[in-house]
Amino acid sequence: MKGKDPFPHSDYFLLGFVSLLVQVVLLREVLVAFRGAEIVLAPSMTAWLLGLSVGGLFVAQRADTSGSRFLPFFGPPVAATLQVFLAAASLLLFRNAHRILSLDPGILPPLHALLFLLLPTFFLCAAFCGVGFAGGLASSDSHRNGAHRLDSFRIDSPGGTLSRPEVFPSATLLPVSKAFLWESAGATAGGILFTFLLVTLPSSVVLAVAAGGIAVGAFSKRRLLSALLLFGFSILLFSSRAEFERLRWNEISDSSPFLETFETPFQSVALGGVPDEIVLSTNGIILGILPDEASNDVAAGLILSQKPDAESVLLLGHASTGVAKALLRSGIRRLDHVELDPFLVRRLASYPAARLPNDTRYRLFSADGISFLSHTRKRYDLVACLVGDPISASTNRYFTRDFFLQVRRILRPDGVLAFRLTSSMEFLGEDFARYLGSLWRAIREVFPVTAVSPGETLWVFAASRPGLLSDSPERLAPRFPHTGFRSDYFSAEHLFTMYRPERARFLRRILDRRAALVAPNTLLHPISYFFGLSVWAHFTNDRALSRILALLSRFRTSWLLLPLIAGLILLSWRIPLPFARISRNEKPIPRRYVAVTILFSSGLLSMGLYFLVLYSFQARRGILYRELGLLNALFMAGLASGSLLAHRFVPSSRSLFHRLALSETLLPFPPVLLGLGEFFSPFPSGSPCWTVWYGFLLFSTAVVTGFQFPIAGLLAAEKKGPRDGGEEGTSAAKERGQRAAVALAAAGAESADNLGAALGALLFGVLLIPVSGVNAALAGAVLLPAILAFALFSLDIRNLT
After folding, report:
1. Of the given ranges (4-8, 148-152, 323-327, 328-332), which has the lowest mean pLDDT?
2. For residues 22 and 799, what is the distance between their CA atoms, to the nearest angstrom?
3. Domain ranges across the chain
4. How many CB atoms lie within 10 A of CB 665?
5. Would you call 439 exposed, middle or buried from its count of C-beta atoms within 10 A (0-12, 13-18, 19+)?
6. What pLDDT does residue 391 have?
7. Choosing a second label site near 674 at 20 to 30 A (CA), which of 199, 260, 382, 608?
């Protein structure tokens, strides 16, 4: 006879552990595929959450039918194994996307084609997780063992204490919520392990660790053949890591030989070429060739042309040591270079082509540029920002009004700011106009004096004092020799080709008109981050996506907030006094419907706050790539803690429904705290205290959602009578009915939560935050649960059946 399993919930722990690792690997891969644009996290998480819902509902629909024969086989271990296999196949898919789409390496693919290619993998991996979670419960003996049966319980109400028989399936509360608790604990462990140990390892190695974890679990359950096969697959993934990394380089370039790829806590890096001439790519974007003296000298010459007497220079750049070397060939006395990623700098320093300048005037600071600006007390004559285009929340921070205010603070009165953007030489369409207009308005609100050098690379210069800048090469050329700049690739004569006064005036007119029609790009309203997708659509000639983005850009917060406020007014009119009760004569409302609605709203709001925290964290810290696993772990730890809290207090509760409604009133508090933190900014930008703060907000929100899950699952699984067998029913029919009830409780509760979360990911991650701003998203996150809580407390519990 088979012995009792000493660790009956270890399979759910393992499922959560593997699912978290698979999810983070896929998110990192999709970030690289989309050039680091975090906005893609929202549709990715939507696909994941929809997969969880569909997987759970699939089990629920088949739990009491002939299709249930597959359930004993498809439990958490099988689901976790299939997730790893599918994730490994997804790596091959992601790293052959250009070949599948018939595009040359390095070419921007159409956004919609890339989404349709990559998002199904999120859906399928999550569907396996959903099937494994609900299927494990439906096929286990949990409906017979460890039951928490509530044949009758008391309900407090203003009219007295009611007592009525409530028939629940056996073990509806404990098995479902305990499985949820252990799955959340496993995900927490996976997130912590990834953040502190696995973050710099290749994706194939992370999946090898996941496969090894499943193998250990199989070995502990004496499934020796499964353990052996999984260990073999883990070794195969580990030994194939070089081939997987070569595939990534082939997506970037086919003209340069592959050198190496590596992960840092901040980004994914790929190197090609030869040691003396390196092609550098980060997050799928080719930053340039090292060394490239011609391009670096042109950049340095243009920067110095607007401030020929600069003595102290601050360079903010990603792998911009070539420009630093060029600037040091001028008369400057101090050059401070701020680079976010010290791992990249150290690795590049091992190549002759990318060695650091050997000059006493040069100092390298390994820090986030925004954090450096907020802490430094130095003053500079010239600040050069060479961080790329604002296509991600991380780089968008360097093109906001908030950043320009910080730069103005550290510049001397006659100081100059210089930065560059990708633009168009001949045609500036509506997409580009909106994108550049929001940036132009942000900088014009801080710096009254500007100069531009139009072209495929648009150079923008800004200053506070009139007379410092000019678009005229006739004025710039005579003073250029004062820079002391020595170069074989740039001289004063080149200024006449780089500066075209008539083209500069034409560009200014377009930008001034467009700036009057769009909002300025700010930290709390990252509109350029959204418009950057329009530029992508422009480059790839994706007209359908351009029309969709143009339509979304017209979205106004009032379209969402006004119906919510109107609903609150109507509710108050229908129920004049708080906590008044609906008449008994009205049609009763099934409690399971209310419970599912609460879970749906909690999922929507918790995911909304999740994306608010992710964006705010990236805006403050700029290291989401490193700490994405940690933030996910804190969120899952909150879910586990909330579920554990429900276990301790719910069994002694006399009113499950009121407990559920009371927990809903707590959901507005985390977004209120987030808003207060953003308004008062109690910590300096870049401070680790922000990580603790945002982690606390995620954890507290997840505690409320985790607390609601087992209670709502219990209420949602109420039965009206025996299934499949009349009044008494056969033993087999009762068995099927109890098994189906457990599956329905698990799948129904989790599906409602995940469907709400999927909607929250799209609503907040794609629409509210980028288009309407953080403040509007916070308003929605506060109003939605407040209205729902008011409605819940206004219901008469005696009218809930």
Report:
1. 148-152
2. 45
3. 293-538
4. 16
5. buried
6. 79
7. 199
